Each structure stands twice: as C-alpha cells, then as structure tokens.
Amino acid sequence: MAQRIDGKAIAASVIERVKQSATDLENSTGTRPGLAVVIVGDDAASHTYVTAKGKRAKECGFHSVQITLPADTTQEKLESVVAELNDDNAIHGILVQLPLPAHLDEFPVIQMIRPEKDVDGLSIVNAGKLAVGDMKTGLISCTPAGAMILIRSVLGDDLSGKNAVVIGRSNLFGRPMGRLLLMANATVTMAHSRTKDLAGVCRQADILVAATGRAEMVKADWVKPGATVIDVGITRVPAPERGEGKTRLLGDVDFAACEAVAGAITPVPGGVGPMTITMLMANTVIAAYRASGLEAPAF
Ligand SMILES: NC(=O)C1=CN([C@@H]2O[C@H](COP(=O)(O)OP(=O)(O)OC[C@H]3O[C@@H](n4cnc5c(N)ncnc54)[C@H](OP(=O)(O)O)[C@@H]3O)[C@@H](O)[C@H]2O)C=CC1
Ligand SMILES: Nc1nc(=O)c2c([nH]1)NC[C@@H]1CN(c3ccc(C(=O)N[C@@H](CCC(=O)O)C(=O)O)cc3)C=[N+]21
C-alpha cells in the first residue's frame, strides 16, 4: 500500500517558515508583504479559492487585498485595476484569478502584471526564466512549485535516473512542472490529449503527475509499481450521500485503485491543493524581500 503524501502537513510546515520570514522582514525593514487577488464575476468555486487565499494571507501577517469586479467588467477597467496594483508600493504580489469571464482576454492582463509582482509565474519573463533554468530571480507558478516540494519529500532533491511523466501542458501547471522536474535531473515526458498510448507512456513513469481535469482518468494499470503519483486535477461532483446539494472533489487519479500499486500518492483533497495556496504565500514573501533589496528565502 502506498505512502499517502500529506499535503496539509507539509503545507503547514512551509507556512511556518513563510510566517517567520515575513516577521523577520517586517522587523528589519518595516515592510509587510502585500498580496492582491483580483477576481472577476461570481463563479462559486473561484470565490471559495480566493476567500481561502485571503484568509491564509492574513494568517501569515500579510497586507491582503481582494478586488472583486462584476462579471460585466470591461477589459479596460480590469487592466486599469492591474495598472494601479503595479504602481502600489504596498503590494508585492498580484494574482488575477483564472479563468476570466469569456468576453475578457486573459493574455494581455497577465502579461501586464510586473514580472516581479507576478506571483503566479505566468508572465513571459517568469516562464522564460524557468525555461532557461534561472531559478534565482524569477517567480515560479505556485502549483508546480508546491508539487515539487511534495515530490522532494518522497524522493529527495535529485531525481537523476528517474522517468517523470506529466499529463497536461498548460502554462499554469504542466509546462512549468515539466521544467522543474527536468531541472531536478529527471527524464521528462510531457503527455497531453494527443498522446498515443497514454497508459503505456504512464507505465514507464517513476514519477507520474496528472493535471488534466478528467476525473479518475488514471487507472491502476497505468501506474508502475512503486511509482510516486501526484494528482493535481480537481473536479467537483455532486455528492447526494453527504446531503442535499453537497459536493465532493475528485482528482485525475482513481485513488482507491492506484493506492494499491503506487509507492507514494497524493490524495484529493489534502494533497497538491493546500500546497498551491502555501506557495502563493511563499512567492509573496519572496517578492517582498526582493522589493526591499534583500536576498529572498528559499522554500
Ligand atoms: N490542486 C491545485 O492547486 C490546482 C488544480 N488544478 C486542476 O488541475 C487540472 C488541470 O488544470 P490546468 O492545467 O489549468 O488545465 P487546462 O485545461 O489548461 O489543461 C489541461 C491539460 O490536460 C490535457 N488533457 C485533457 N484531457 C486529456 C486526456 N483525456 N488525455 C490526456 N491529456 C488530456 C490537455 O491537453 P491539450 O493541451 O492537448 O488540450 C491540457 O494540456 C484541473 O482539474 C484544475 O482544476 C489547477 C491548478 C491548481
Ligand atoms: N491565477 C490563478 N492561479 C491559480 O493558481 C489558480 C487559478 N487562477 N484558478 C483556479 C486554479 C485552481 N487552484 C486551486 C487552489 C487551491 C486548491 C485547494 O486548496 N484545494 C483543496 C480543497 C479545497 C476545497 O475543498 O474546495 C485540496 O485539494 O485539498 C485547489 C485548486 C488554483 N488555481
């Protein structure tokens, strides 16, 4: 039976270090890390995440701002909000919650965030730094950064000789995940919806990372015995057995079946999810240190 990777516990230990770093920064420079989260529209799941982010930021002692814009916000208005945050010295991190409503174009909005405040790591500058292997001056997308900490907790820092397969190639997750694994010396395969014989590709993986949003797609016979399985996907499904109108979360991995084959596996919830919010706090502290001209802590 696989070891369950406890994302909640690992996230809690990272949060302690984030809090300590924030306290040290405030004591030495008077600067409090500031995080602004911008959300457009009233998608319930997005609001849940954004509320959780704000709560965590306050717990960490940050200056935390949430900007909620109506669903019919114009492109110009959204861009002017981001421009103001770019110029606000109290704000070190800006996150625009995705997806945006269909009438808005996310690309120019993401690209106008100052790279040094882009705590999602989505700007071309930050994605490019990661692509060329510069881990020191950029900001790395929170979910892959968090998934990497979970992988390191099982396998250590050096993944030499390991085959890693990432299913999914989004800018938010799959691509940066592949780059982080490569930098840790894994041999990386990027799989996606056009991959032939996905099950066969996955069976080669010592490290299997699934991020498609297809509930329970990864079956037990896709998993190499003893592999480390990281489940990023989140699909919310009705759960009438929990009461009327209740829901529950499913990952991309058929957890009950894969747990019997894998060496280590993340649950959903309680795996990668808690690490995402934690790394957002970590990136905000990093950005605040750099803005103060100090060397940032590593997490
Ligand atoms: N736990 C957390 O903190 C986070 C969870 N998530 C979750 O992770 C999942 C992925 O997110 P994100 O990367 O943003 O999603 P996207 O929809 O942007 O990307 C999904 C990727 O999965 C690939 N894919 C889709 N269907 C299949 C299939 N049947 N076989 C193989 N590959 C497939 C797509 O391939 P192609 O490119 O060919 O279309 C695409 O590259 C979602 O469930 C999301 O909710 C996301 C961020 C944070
Ligand atoms: N600009 C942007 N950056 C993001 O990083 C981003 C985004 N937009 N849009 C949506 C996705 C999704 N995402 C999650 C964050 C936390 C949990 C999380 O905390 N999950 C908990 C469960 C939470 C629950 O019970 O609902 C867990 O898995 O244990 C999940 C998913 C960040 N995303």
Question: How is this structure best described in words?
Answer:
With 299 residues, the chain is α/β, with parallel strands linked by helices. It has 2 domains: 29-114, Leucine Dehydrogenase, chain A, domain 1 (Rossmann fold); 142-273, NAD(P)-binding Rossmann-like Domain (Rossmann fold, 3-Layer(aba) Sandwich). 40% of the residues lie in helices and 16% in strands. It has helices spanning 7-29, 44-59, 75-87, 106-112, 124-131, 142-155, 174-183, 198-202, 255-258, 272-291; strands at 3-4, 34-40, 63-69, 93-96, 163-167, 187-191, 207-210, 228-231, 235-238, 247-250, 264-265. The strands form 3 sheets. The chain has a 6-stranded parallel beta sheet. Helix 6 (142-155) packs parallel to helix 7 (174-183). The chain is globular, with a radius of gyration of 19 Å. The two termini are 29 Å apart. NADPH dihydro-nicotinamide-adenine-dinucleotide phosphate is lined by residues 143, 167-170, 172-174, 192-195, 198, 211-214, 232-235, 272-273, 276.
